[in-house]
């Protein structure tokens, strides 16, 4: 069991997914079965996994509740849009916009975190929530730059480097974006894996376990939180860049609101806080349900009703996704607060009575 | 030349003052629910705004049962309108109070001893569930016999601007045909002499409902024995329990009261503030209310009212001075700035985090 636990499951999953497009005919038959472009939907799923890992750095490692991750996602998407669309004067290439989106989102993250770090838990959560909403309204209202609710488009697809001599249509063949996003996901997982074992990562976890004790041990909690916020925001911005490039436009600013932030938080909590493999599992379950399972089921149900049948929105599975996510959050918190695949530390923290039976009884109520 | 300009400006500001006051009183009704619950169980009840939202749908259903929704609103008789408003004001608070108590008993109560993150995340989950229910509720109620798309907004019957109400108002000498305050009326003398100022029957309803409610709540918390128990529980639940206070009952009562206030708020807001209602209403209004609660010092009852009035004024003056589309962003900037520089709020006292 412990030997199995030690395997780098997150990296193995990514490698297995990288192998899928090489299985002949697999994606075609899955497309036919699900009646949607499976490869393209998987790409979106990988992007959301990168976004979730950005949130994971803040919530999973330092234990600070961040309710505005979608803002950094949106900032990444819009930086990419501004730098690449033909209607604005920059016309940068994809790699430049990728780096710029990441750095700018990280910079904004630092800017937000620097003055708010001394706030305690739930107040900090509120600041991030407020910041998320402000960002959404700002994106909507600064029409001269962001084009309001219409968003920026078209964002050109990336070009393969000259020396490969290859060219391809990124729009029709899903494999370009599939491997690009999976590659980014792999790199992010690898970086976080190493970071977790580093001095910084261990300090973050100490901070999460007990802030007061961490301070007493001489850790600069302010600087640690700042680093986590910056890195998390940067990764979210990176995901935003991928999202906008894949979509070909920046989407409506409403795509970067509270709902997105909570859906991603839901992935982390369902999968297991503090564990990268758990985050991946959460993303596969939540985003997979949202983007793949529910639409596929709906199409099947609609086909079963017959071609002329009226579509009643609340008789579809997609309609009930908020309910499904909400129930998932409530039930996980009630019955398995450490998530499906918990990190061993978080699990022990949430079930103190199982490891320390002598201190289980509360001195006041005896419960 | 300068004088008319200033007179004009003064009028705009007085109008903003009136608008801010009514918007703020409505926000206060919801903010009180947040702040009371936080004061007692230290939980940011994210679902509270959505209880408010479901309240508007419940109120709509009451009107639908009376048959005065849709096209029938304009021809509704005076008696039907009075009955409708009375029934809404009676039943909706009951519904919201019951819902809020049910959520507490079902979801939050088992998590009282869990780490603080658990009830907070559960509250977000409940909020999502209620939003989905609101969507469903909207979808199953037809409008004039036709199906409404679940996620889109629907018109709330504008009972207060129907011809029959306007005629009665004019007959009673309260306002003229376009809803302006009459020259020489009581409202006019209170508000001062600035021509064209609008203080309509809607504003009147808001004040008539919110002010007595807030006074009653303050009296209840200050002077009744149950109110004393609530304050004791907020200060120290363990000590309160040792003094023989049934803490669970007090918490349940807090949720009931908060829900009922949200219920009153939803009826009044639907009648006065909104033209359409949809499932996202609770999130929006909830965030404002919640900002108000934080602004005043979360857990502090007069603070919530003060914070709500500030938010109301930011909205009304902001839309005059900066532009309406930026008011929401301004509210959240204020929230952030407030939390950074004075996280305990305007009236809150500094509390040490329990280790």
Overview in brief:
The complex is a heterodimer of chains A (367) and B (355). Chain A is mainly α. Chain A has helices spanning 2-6, 9-19, 26-34, 38-62, 69-84, 94-116, 121-141, 143-146, 175-197, 199-209, 211-216, 221-247, 258-271, 276-305, 321-335, 344-350, 352-355.
Secondary-structure blueprint of this entry?
The complex is a heterodimer of chains A (367) and B (355).
Chain A: H1 2-6, H2 9-19, H3 26-34, H4 38-62, H5 69-84, H6 94-116, H7 121-141, H8 143-146, H9 175-197, H10 199-209, H11 211-216, H12 221-247, H13 258-271, H14 276-305, H15 321-335, H16 344-350, H17 352-355
Helix pairs in contact in A: 2-9, 4-9, 4-12, 4-13, 4-14, 5-6, 5-7, 5-12, 6-12, 10-12, 13-14, 13-15
Chain B: H1 2-41, H2 48-66, H3 78-108, H4 117-140, E1 154-155, H5 163-171, H6 186-191, H7 201-223, H8 225-235, H9 237-242, H10 247-272, E2 276-277, H11 281-296, H12 301-321, H13 327-341
Antiparallel strand pairs in B: 1-2
Helix pairs in contact in B: 1-7, 1-10, 1-11, 1-12, 2-3, 2-4, 2-10, 2-11, 3-10, 7-8, 7-10, 8-10, 11-12, 11-13, 12-13
The proportion of strand residues of chain A reads under 5%
Q: What is the residue-mean pLDDT of chain A, rounded to a whole number?
A: 87
Task: Write down the secondary-structure element order of chain B.
Answer: HHHHEHHHHHHEHHH
Q: Let me know the average pLDDT of chain B.
A: 84
Report the portion of residues of chain B in β strands: under 5%
What is the straight-line distance between the termini of chain A?
34 Å
The structure class of chain A reads mainly alpha
The multimeric state of the shown protein is: heterodimer
Give structural notes.
The complex is a heterodimer of chains A (367) and B (355). Chain A has 367 residues and is mainly α. Chain A contains 17 helices and no strands. Residues 356-367 of chain A have low confidence and may be disordered. Chain B is globular. By secondary structure, chain B is mainly α. The longest helix of chain B has 40 residues, at 2-41. In chain B, helix 7 crosses helix 8. Chain B is 70% helix and 1% strand. The chains are: A mainly alpha (367), B mainly alpha (355). Chains A and B meet through helix 7, helix 13 and helix 15 of A and helix 4, helix 11 and helix 13 of B.
């Amino acid at each position: 069991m412990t030997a199995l636990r030690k395997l780098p499951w997150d990296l193995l999953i990514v490698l297995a997914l990288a192998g899928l497009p090489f299985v002949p005919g697999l994606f075609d038959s899955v497309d036919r079965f699900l009646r949607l472009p499976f490869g393209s939907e998987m790409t979106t799923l990988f992007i959301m996994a990168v976004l979730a890992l950005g949130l994971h750095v803040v919530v999973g490692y330092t234990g600070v509740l961040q309710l505005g991750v979608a803002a950094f996602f949106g900032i990444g998407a819009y930086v990419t849009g501004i730098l690449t669309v033909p209607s604005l004067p920059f016309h940068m290439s994809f790699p430049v916009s990728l780096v710029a989106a990441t750095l700018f989102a990280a910079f904004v993250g630092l800017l937000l975190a620097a003055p708010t770090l001394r706030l305690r838990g739930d107040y900090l959560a509120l600041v991030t929530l407020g910041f998320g909403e402000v960002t959404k309204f700002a994106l909507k209202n600064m029409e001269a730059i962001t084009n309001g609710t219409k968003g920026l488009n078209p964002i050109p697809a990336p070009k393969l480097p000259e020396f490969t001599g290859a060219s391809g249509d990124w729009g029709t063949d899903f494999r370009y974006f599939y491997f690009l996003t999976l590659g980014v996901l792999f790199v992010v997982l690898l970086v976080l894996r190493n970071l977790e074992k580093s001095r910084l990562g261990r300090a973050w976890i100490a901070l999460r376990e007990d802030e007061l004790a961490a301070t007493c041990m001489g850790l600069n909690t302010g600087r640690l939180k700042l680093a986590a916020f910056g890195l998390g925001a940067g990764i979210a911005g990176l995901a935003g860049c991928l999202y906008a490039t894949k979509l070909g436009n920046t989407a409506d600013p409403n795509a970067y609101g509270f709902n997105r932030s909570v859906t991603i938080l839901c992935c982390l909590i369902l999968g297991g806080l503090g564990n990268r493999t758990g985050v991946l599992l959460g993303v596969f379950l939540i985003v997979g349900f949202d983007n793949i399972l529910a639409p596929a089921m709906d199409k099947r149900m609609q086909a079963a009703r017959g071609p002329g049948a009226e579509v009643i929105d609340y008789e579809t599975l997609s309609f009930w996704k908020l309910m499904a996510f909400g129930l998932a959050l409530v039930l996980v918190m009630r019955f398995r607060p450490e998530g499906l695949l918990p990190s061993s530390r978080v699990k022990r923290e949430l079930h103190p009575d199982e490891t320390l039976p002598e201190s289980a009884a509360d001195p006041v109520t005896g419960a | 030349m300068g004088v008319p300009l200033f007179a004009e400006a003064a009028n705009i500001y007085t109008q903003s003052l009136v608008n801010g006051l009514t918007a703020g009183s409505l926000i206060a009704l919801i903010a009180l629910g947040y702040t009371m619950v936080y004061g007692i169980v230290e939980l940011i009840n994210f679902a509270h705004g959505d209880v408010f939202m479901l309240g508007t749908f419940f109120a709509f259903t009451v009107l639908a049962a009376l048959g005065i929704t849709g096209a029938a609103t304009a021809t509704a008789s005076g008696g039907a309108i009075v009955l409708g408003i009375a029934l809404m004001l009676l039943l909706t608070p009951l519904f919201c109070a019951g819902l809020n108590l049910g959520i507490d008993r079902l979801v939050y109560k088992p998590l009282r001893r869990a780490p603080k993150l658990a009830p907070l995340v559960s509250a977000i989950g409940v909020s999502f569930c209620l939003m989905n229910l609101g969507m469903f509720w909207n979808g199953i109620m037809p409008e004039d016999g036709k199906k409404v798309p679940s996620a889109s907004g629907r018109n709330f019957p504008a009972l207060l601007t129907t011809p029959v109400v306007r005629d009665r108002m004019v007959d009673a000498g309260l306002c003229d045909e376009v809803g302006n305050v009459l020259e020489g009326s009581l409202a006019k003398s209170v508000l001062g002499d600035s021509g064209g100022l609008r203080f309509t029957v809607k504003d009147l309803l808001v004040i008539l409902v919110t002010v007595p409610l807030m006074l009653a709540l303050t009296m209840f918390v200050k002077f009744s024995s149950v109110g004393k128990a609530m304050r004791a529980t907020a200060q120290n639940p363990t000590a309160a329990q040792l003094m023989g206070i049934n803490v669970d009952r007090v918490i349940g009562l807090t949720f009931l009261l908060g829900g009922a206030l949200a219920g009153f708020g939803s009826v009044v807001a639907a009648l006065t503030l909104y033209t359409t209602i949809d499932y996202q209403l609770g999130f929006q209004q909830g965030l404002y209310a919640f900002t108000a609660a934080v602004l005043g010092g979360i857990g502090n009852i007069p603070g919530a009212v003060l914070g709500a009035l500030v938010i109301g004024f930011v909205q009304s003056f902001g839309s005059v001075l900066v532009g309406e589309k930026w008011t929401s962003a301004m509210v959240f900037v204020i929230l952030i700035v407030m939390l950074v520089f004075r996280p305990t709020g305007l009236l809150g006292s500094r509390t040490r985090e329990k280790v």
